[in-house]
């Protein structure tokens, strides 16, 4: 769900998105909506071979620290030169992902909380 919401937000801002999911039904739903998608498992060392390594950024919405660390390692080993954004739910994991080579750490709860003041400002007073 988190990854799908990220993809939708990126597309609304004009970015091209290529989704990878280990659930073939999710890939099928993406393709039916006209989105580029590929079946793949993030902890598969052959995954980078499936990815468009000329992409400006790879975004991992996965919660699993070990899979994110492996993905970063695989991308670096495959010669990927773009940015890598990885998801973390804890500060300790965020530091490990940065040390491994992630350029941006997505913190879902922090990121969502930071957008709340703007949303609250947009509320209209009740009469």
Query: What does the radius of gyration come to?
Result: 16 Å
Counting copies of identical and different chains, the oligomeric state is single chain
Mean pLDDT: 87
**Spans with pLDDT under 50 lasting ≥5 residues?**
none
- CATH fold call: Rossmann fold
Structural class: alpha/beta
The number of strands is 5
At the first level of CATH, what is the class? Answer: Alpha Beta
- Tally the helices: what do you get? 6
Largest sheet: 3 strands, parallel
- The helix/strand order is HEHEHEHEHEH
What does this structure look like?
The protein has 127 residues and is of the alpha/beta class. It has a single domain, classed as Rossmann fold, CATH 3.40.50.720. The protein has helices at residues 2-12, 24-32, 47-50, 65-77, 91-100, 108-121, and strands at 18-21, 36-39, 57-60, 83-87, 104-106. A three-stranded parallel sheet has the order 3-4-5, covered by helices on one side. Strands 1-2 form a two-stranded parallel sheet. α4 packs parallel to α5 (91-100). The longest helix has 14 residues, at 108-121.
Offer a quick outline of the entry.
With 127 residues, this protein is α/β, with parallel strands linked by helices.
Strands, helices and their partners?
Layout: H1 2-12, E1 18-21, H2 24-32, E2 36-39, H3 47-50, E3 57-60, H4 65-77, E4 83-87, H5 91-100, E5 104-106, H6 108-121
Parallel strand pairs: 1-2, 3-4, 4-5
Descriptive terms for the model:
127 residues, alpha/beta, Rossmann fold, 3-stranded parallel β-sheet, two-stranded parallel sheet, globular
């Amino acid at each position: 769900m988190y990854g799908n919401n990220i993809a939708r937000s990126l597309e609304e801002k004009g970015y091209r998105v290529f989704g990878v999911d280990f659930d073939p039904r999710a890939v099928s739903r993406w393709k039916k909506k006209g989105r580029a998608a590929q079946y793949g498992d993030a902890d598969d060392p052959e995954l980078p071979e499936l990815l468009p390594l000329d992409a400006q950024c790879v975004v991992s919405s996965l919660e699993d620290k070990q899979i994110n660390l492996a993905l970063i390692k695989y991308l670096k080993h495959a010669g990927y030169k773009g940015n890598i954004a990885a998801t973390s739910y804890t500060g300790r994991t965020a530091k490990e992902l940065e040390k491994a080579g992630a350029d941006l750490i997505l913190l879902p709860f922090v990121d969502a909380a930071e957008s709340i003041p703007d949303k609250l400002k947009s509320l209209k007073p009740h009469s």
